[in-house]
Amino acid sequence: MTHAPIESEADARRRVRLGIAFGIAMAVMAASSFAVARGGILRGVQPEDITLLRFCVAGLIFLPFLLKRGIADLGGMGWKRGLALVLTAGPFAAFFQAAGFLYAPLAHGAVLVPMSVTVFCSIFAVVLLKERFGLAHALGTLGILAGLAMIGGEGLMSGGAGVWIGDLMFLAAGLLWAAYTILFRYWRLDTLTAMAAVSVLSLAIMLIVYPVAYSLPRLLALPWQELVLQAGVQGLLSGTLATIAYNRIVVLLGAGRAVLFPAIVPGLAIVFGIPILGEYPNALQLLGLASAMLGLLVALGIIRLPR
Questions:
Q1: pLDDT the model gives residue 81
Q2: What is the DSSP string of 122-185?
Q3: Of 85, 98, 104, which is closest to residue 52 (Cα–Cα)?
Q4: What is the domain range of residue 174?
Q5: Are 30 and 262 in contact (CB under 8 A)?
Q6: What's the pTM value of the predicted model, to 2 decimals?
Q7: In whole angstroms, what is the distance from residue 194 CA to residue 251 CA?
Q8: Can you point out the beta strands (E) in 167-253?
Q9: Which segments of 70-134 does DSSP mark as H helices, in order?
Q10: Average pLDDT score over residue span 45-58
Q11: What φ, ψ does residue 303 adopt, rounded to 5°?
């Protein structure tokens, strides 16, 4: 019987630093996708357009990789697992996240999606994966949630009729992403294989569904600059690079700690919303951003609690 090598303290520190670097990069790319998606919706882009463009780019990027690994068994992962990942991180999650902006403003989506990922995944990690967290993680998570409440509280309490529909869509997207995180961690999948399967299968689904259910001429009538922007941000940054980074965080830091990084997305999205949407944060939102960042640092152990 062989035993896994014991990780040295220096290796553990390097692993945590690498995980944090991936986490920050993921948060920046995810935040930009929220702001760009909201801007696209305001300019006439539809949620199904964003979903199609996202997986057209990501699917084409990952197709050669999946063909090389073997598409017959999805790179050795198997079709049952592949389909389960598509149901959680595929078109449904992308569509719900984009469609919410038809009814609700940027603050709603930027707060509710990462907040629900953090809450749902922390619960799943404890119940299903038996991960255990100490006082620092608990207090840090409370700081994150308090910050999120301050960032989006004013926006979440206001809004016209139908805003609740968008909020439910954002919560659904967060729940699906949390389920994906747990499945990826539980099955201990390879990062690139998992994302290749999700991206290629999602592309195949969208290429079948979109021409039947939606209007391809309407999509092609949109300004090409808008299509390039959405494809680049949603497909390359968010759909490919940010998702790879997120998977690496799960591997390096664990599922429970990986979901702490989406908590800083709302603050960054609000910052990106200034030049993209002309929306400026108020003092309470800035205070919330500081609280979420402080909570993240405490939960990760960068800021240590006194004994």
A1: 94
A2: HHHHHHTS-----HHHHHHHHHHHHHHHHHHHHHHH---TTHHHHHHHHHHHHHHHHHHHHHHH
A3: 98
A4: 13-299
A5: yes
A6: 0.80
A7: 13
A8: none
A9: 79-89, 91-99, 106-127
A10: 95
A11: -100, 115
Per-residue tokens: 224: 């090409």
Other C-beta atoms closer than 10 Å to the C-beta of 30 total: 24
275-295 pLDDT, tens per residue?
777 767 778 877 877 887 787
Burial of 94 (0-12, 13-18, 19+ CB in 10 A): buried
Please choose, from the candidates 52, 90, 95, the residue with its C-alpha nearest in 3D space to the C-alpha of residue 210: 52
On whether residue 304 sits in a domain, the answer given is no
* Contact assessment for residue 55 and residue 95, using Cβ atoms and an 8 Å cutoff: no
Check residue 307 and give its pLDDT: 64
Instruction: Give the H/E segment covering residue 301.
Output: none
Chain centroid to CA 53: 17
Question: What CA–CA distance (Å, rounded) separates 138 from 143?
Answer: 9
Q: What are the b/e assignments for 122-158, b being 16+ CB within 10 Å?
A: bebbeeebebebeebbeebbebbbbbbbbbbbebbee
Give every CB contact of residue 51 below 8 A, 6+ residues apart in sequence: 91, 94, 95, 98, 206
Tokens 């809004």: give the residue: 159
Q: Is residue 74 part of a domain?
A: yes
DSSP 104: S
Residue 6 within any structural domain of the chain: no
Question: What total number of domains does the chain contain?
Answer: 1
240: pLDDT strictly greater than 70 = yes
Q: Which residue has the tokens 């979109």?
A: 210
Residue 95 inside a domain? The answer is yes
- For tokens 């920050």, the residue is 24
Q: How far is CA 251 from CA 182, 232, 247, in A?
A: 11, 26, 6
CA distance 236 to 205: 19
| Cβ-based burial of 3 (10 A; exposed 0-12, middle 13-18, buried ≥19) | exposed
